[in-house]
Amino acid sequence: PAEARMVGHERLVSRSDLIAMGFDASVVMDLPAKGYEHDSEEKIARRGLDDQREGYADPSQVEVEVREAYIKLDLNQDGKSELRQVFTSNGRLLSNEPADRQPFHALCSKPLPHKHFGTCPAEMVMDIQEVTTTLTRQILDNLYQTNNPGHAVYEQAIGETTLDDLMTTEVGRIAIFDRPIGESYAPMTVPFTAGQSFPMLSRYEQVKQDRTGVTSASDMLDPEALKKVQQSVMTQSMDIANGKIEMIARIFAESGIKSLFLHMHELIRKHIDKVEVAKLRGEWVEVDPSSWRDRPDVSVNVGIGMGSRQSNLMHLTAIQGLQAQLAATNGLNMTVTPKNIYNTAAEIVKNANLKDPRKYFTDPGDQLAPPPNQEMIAVQNQQNQIAQAQLALAQEKQAIDRTRVEVRGQQDQMRMMLEHQREIAKLQQSKERDDDRIRLEIEKVQQAMIELELKYNAEIAPADFTYNPLTGELTDRGDTEA
Question: Which end of the chain has fewer beta carbons closer than 10 Å to its terminal beta carbon, N or C?
Fold first, then answer.
């Protein structure tokens, strides 16, 4: 925004606030209202029931639309543009004054090159939301049709209440037909295919997590998974998942937040000329902004470290162990000093979100430690050997635990596959039994027709429709007399 030829924004401000900003009261009170009650018909129609409110009874609290812009103009016709602060409302110029800089600072989670407006994580998963919504609706539709299938009814078997009876979904309903049930009715079975869509939902959920970095592991929302994972493995997984989230926070800090604090520093240098008292590092100190006139090289450090608190604690613990090892092997006062050890302990305290390390450790200053005796060195060496053996055992245990987790995962996958195969086999057996039953019924009907033809020495005319038990379809044979 600092390099743009014009920046500005538009907002609703009450007449009282405009007068407090220094604008002429007669001009402000003459401005038309542009508040909530003056919205367009479309905007009013889109409101919810909880968005309704009454207008203002006090004219000073009526809101008007005000535009504040910072634009470069050449008003004195010298060929050079000057930055101006311009206020307008309803096409009327309220003020036009010189300005030293514009006050806007832009934040964007995912900037685009050469664009002011970038994208956000929601735009990264909008297509996935549409797909998952469609799959969920299809799964529910298939479930509804499977539990409540349609009906195939022979037209000449329909009585006065047959259709009403079939449309009733109560448990234990009664349906009345004019012909035997086997000749009049058959359910239009819909195969259950919703189970085949669940893997696609899991697939798109994984794609969403890969795009955004937001996972159940990073939010600590999966306790069952956390039980099977070691601390170091979980920390590594969380660091990877939080990488994209930390990237957004770092973009915020390095772009808009950093420029905002530089702007605050600039305003303090320009407008504060007296000594202030502030609490710094647990102590009250005097701060004189007037002495900052000649420090244009000030920089803003972003308070976002690399890695999480857990990973930082692991690194600090490793450094502390290395310091203890060096101090125990004649490295004290040479490669490691008491001041170095105190600094590491202080960083551990700060990593625990505790502000004052001096409450827990005493700063030794720059003094050196007395040389250790040989007996103490021997004891420390023995302790270091025990610590190394314990570390090796812990690493071996972690490797065994990881192998156990992988084996359990494979066993669970095989168990799910076997259960799926058993369900498919049950469905096939059920379908075969139904097909055999229908064939037997058809054969009985055909046998009865043959006996009637032989008994009465007459040919029975075919029905208008034939039913295929394998496909569930009715076929019209044409205009034949029943």
Answer: C
